[in-house]
């Protein structure tokens, strides 16, 4: 079936939708231009910097303080000293963001209690084309050590990327394809670090050099980590009690089969002109890591490990133009060949294969007195296959196409932003063929009483077509410890949400607050049936209604600020989400968290001291155990004599109180706790 009747990438419905979007943008431009041009432009925000501008979710670029989107950004400085870890673990602790904590090798971000296919992970705005969304034990083929910037969008107002982003977007941005020439003709960085908790080390290097209009970029990294230490036994107290057993010891040790090794290397070539750039790159990712806890399932006692390889090619460019309201065109595309094998001992039990490509083009409007916008289109084709004992999802070809328009009018004191998107998705498997078409829309209004306050309210309605697993699964899935059964008759899932936003900047004190409520029609859930197959409980994908309510808050108090190199500030953050379905509490919803930290900078020295509290979770789904809360103490100290680059030496202590940390969002929470006390030493040299 896969080789026949594959739809055109732009079916008639999508071509019609794209024409309507172009017409809508043109009519909007003509209708608004007479109003916009006649008014004074909004005043620039004080303190705006180039690195404040975000592009994920707003291709025309806005600042974090000037949009109703819920955004977090990790910049190059933060990433240079980030732990050598997975994407989910590096982002864990940002407001509204947790991790699936599937040991050291495979942890995905959890955003507002949602994970897997509802959280879209991108590489420079284009999908990863891997198999990480299929199962929590599959590693994300995007490494934070490879990034110069990571932007995180929380919530469903992510119309630039379609229904897969119904829960949020994580965009991993790198400089492999240079958009500007390095200052002085070259730029580079070398980093080394070691970690005590797992006897690990990591090394990375990157270099970019300009030769006339050409910029060549090279990069590579390698990290190795053994089994990490844990303060308590691997199996939790609650699991022992549920099985009618008693913990024989409170001693920890090393978590068996929690090792992780990663290699990433690649390069890029860009041509940079007076009004744009175009470039291509290649990246190779190789990884092998252990999956602890599988022996507890009653299967073979042989340790389960995963070996992953992906080769990815990217083409990206941007150029100025002058066509009607449009000032720039931006295009990107990627092709990836991905595979990973799940080994039981020395034998390959299952191989997962995913290859395909994705392309994206955006026309960005000029900023005309506060009116900005963009229209775009996106296409994808991906072939997925699984071969072996755990091939619980059949071979499937996924074809997607979408078109969108985003508009924003900022008149200084008041403004409006919104968008519209059409999506077509087709899944053609050996079992059945399904097509889904969804329309998504958002509208946000904001008001600035004065320059220090920003108040916003946004509404969104987003549709998501089911995945290949949700439709066609039929077999044992060791990672979830269940025999999973899909439903080929599932319909699209729709989220209708409302969100309030508050940004306050009073100089010494600043605050960001987001309050949200989302109602899901046709929420796709994995629910127990009460049956058993292959010695595993049977879980079936079903549709129900669901409600998610929560908040995220951040606050900063600048106690002392004397120039660029001397400051002292207090920071606090907290979040909470409650998820309910018509079947009961939603599964694996993280509990509340609160973080307080002191951050200092004194000439060449900088540091922070952080206390993080995570609550217990006793609102659990069927067959799910409650999770105890925890408190961790973290500290960081760095020395850098030159603020513009040069040498940076740092030390970090994480979980200094050696707490037992179990993330409720993890399938492995009762079998594989997070690492105990860890000391990390590192050095970075920029040139």
Give an overview in words:
- With 687 residues, this protein is mainly beta.
- The protein is 7% helix and 54% strand.
- It has 5 helices and 36 strands.
- The strands form 5 sheets. It has a 22-stranded antiparallel β-barrel. A 5-stranded mixed beta sheet has the order 3-8-9-6-7.
- Strand 32 (593-602) and strand 33 (605-614) form a beta hairpin.
- It is globular and about 65 Å long.
- The model is unreliable at 1-11 and 13-50 (pLDDT under 50).
Q: In terms of topology, how is this protein built?
A:
Layout: H1 12-37, E1 53-54, E2 62-63, E3 70-74, H2 76-80, H3 87-91, E4 97-99, E5 109-111, E6 119-123, E7 126-127, E8 149-154, E9 168-173, E10 186-195, E11 200-211, E12 214-225, E13 229-230, H4 237-242, E14 253-254, E15 260-273, E16 276-291, E17 304-323, E18 326-344, E19 347-365, E20 371-388, E21 396-410, E22 414-429, E23 433-447, E24 453-464, H5 468-472, E25 474-477, E26 482-485, E27 493-505, E28 509-533, E29 536-561, E30 566-581, E31 584-585, E32 593-602, E33 605-614, E34 630-639, E35 646-654, E36 678-686
Parallel strand pairs: 6-9, 26-29
Antiparallel strand pairs: 1-2, 3-8, 4-5, 6-7, 8-9, 10-11, 10-36, 11-12, 12-15, 13-14, 15-16, 16-17, 17-18, 18-19, 19-20, 20-21, 21-22, 22-23, 23-24, 24-27, 25-26, 27-28, 28-29, 29-30, 30-31, 30-32, 32-33, 33-34, 34-35, 35-36
């Amino acid at each position: 079936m896969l080789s026949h009747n594959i739809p055109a990438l732009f079916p008639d419905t999508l071509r019609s939708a794209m024409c309507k979007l172009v017409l809508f943008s043109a009519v909007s431009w003509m209708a608004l231009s007479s109003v916009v041009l006649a008014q004074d432009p909004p005043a620039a925000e004080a303190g705006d910097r180039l690195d404040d501008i975000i592009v994920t979710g707003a291709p025309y670029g806005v600042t974090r303080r000037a949009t109703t989107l819920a955004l977090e950004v990790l910049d190059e400085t933060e990433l240079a000293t980030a732990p050598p870890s997975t994407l989910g673990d590096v982002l864990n602790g940002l407001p509204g963001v947790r991790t699936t904590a599937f040991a050291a090798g495979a942890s995905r971000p959890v955003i507002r209690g949602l994970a897997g296919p509802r959280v879209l992970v991108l590489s420079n705005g284009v999908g990863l084309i891997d198999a990480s969304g299929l199962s929590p034990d599959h590693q994300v083929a995007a490494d934070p050590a490879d990034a110069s910037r990571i932007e995180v969008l929380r919530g469903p107002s992510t119309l630039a990327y379609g229904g897969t982003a119904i829960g949020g977007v994580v965009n991993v941005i790198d400089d492999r394809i240079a958009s500007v020439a390095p200052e002085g003709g070259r730029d580079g960085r070398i980093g080394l670090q070691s970690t005590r908790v797992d006897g690990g080390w990591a090394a990375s290097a990157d270099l970019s050099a300009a030769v006339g209009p050409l910029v060549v970029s090279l990069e590579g990294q390698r990290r190795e980590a053994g089994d990490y230490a844990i303060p308590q036994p691997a199996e939790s107290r609650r699991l022992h009690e549920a099985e009618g057993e008693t913990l024989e010891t409170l001693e920890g040790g090393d978590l068996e089969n929690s090792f992780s090794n990663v290699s990433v290397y690649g390069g890029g070539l860009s041509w940079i002109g007076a009004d744009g750039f175009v470039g291509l790159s290649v990246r190779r990712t190789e990884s092998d890591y252990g999956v602890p806890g599988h022996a507890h399932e009653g299967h073979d006692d042989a340790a389960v490990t995963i070996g992953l390889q992906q080769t990815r090619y990217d083409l990206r460019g941007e150029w100025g133009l002058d066509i009607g309201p449009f000032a720039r065109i931006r295009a990107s595309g990627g092709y990836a060949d991905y595979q990973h094998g799940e080994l039981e001992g020395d034998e390959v039990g299952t191989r997962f294969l995913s290859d395909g490509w994705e392309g994206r083009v955006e026309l960005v409007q000029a900023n005309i007195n506060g009116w900005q916008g963009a229209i775009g289109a996106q296409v994808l084709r991906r072939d997925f296959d699984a071969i072996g004992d755990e091939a619980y999802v059949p071979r499937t070809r996924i074809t997607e196409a979408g078109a969108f328009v985003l508009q924003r009018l900022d008149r200084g004191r008041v403004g409006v932003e919104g968008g519209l998107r059409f999506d077509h998705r087709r899944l053609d498997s050996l079992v059945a063929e399904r097509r889904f078409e969804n329309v998504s829309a958002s509208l946000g209004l904001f008001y600035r009483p004065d320059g220090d306050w920003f108040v916003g309210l946004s509404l969104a309605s987003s549709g998501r077509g089911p995945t290949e697993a949700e439709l066609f699964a039929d077999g044992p899935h060791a990672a979830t410890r269940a025999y999973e059964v899909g439903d080929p008759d599932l319909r699209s899932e729709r989220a209708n949400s409302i969100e309030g936003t508050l940004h306050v900047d009073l100089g010494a004190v600043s605050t960001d607050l987001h309050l949200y409520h989302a109602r899901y029609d046709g929420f796709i859930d994995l629910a127990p049936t009460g049956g058993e197959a292959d010695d595993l409980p049977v879980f079936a994908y079903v549709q129900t209604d669901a409600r998610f309510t929560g908040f995220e808050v951040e606050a900063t108090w600048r106690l002392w600020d004397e120039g660029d190199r001397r400051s002292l500030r207090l920071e606090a953050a907290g979040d909470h989400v409650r998820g309910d379905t018509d079947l009961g509490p939603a599964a694996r919803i993280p509990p509340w968290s609160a973080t307080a930290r002191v951050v200092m900078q004194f000439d060449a020295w900088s540091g922070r001291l952080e206390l993080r509290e995570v609550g217990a979770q006793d609102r659990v789904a069927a067959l799910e155990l409650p999770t105890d809360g925890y408190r961790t103490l973290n500290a960081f100290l760095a020395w850098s004599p030159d603020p513009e680059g040069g040498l940076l030496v740092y030390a970090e202590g994480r979980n200094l109180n050696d707490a037992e940390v179990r993330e409720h969002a993890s399938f492995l929470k009762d079998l594989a706790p997070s690492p105990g006390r860890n000391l990390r030493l590192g050095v970075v040299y920029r040139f």
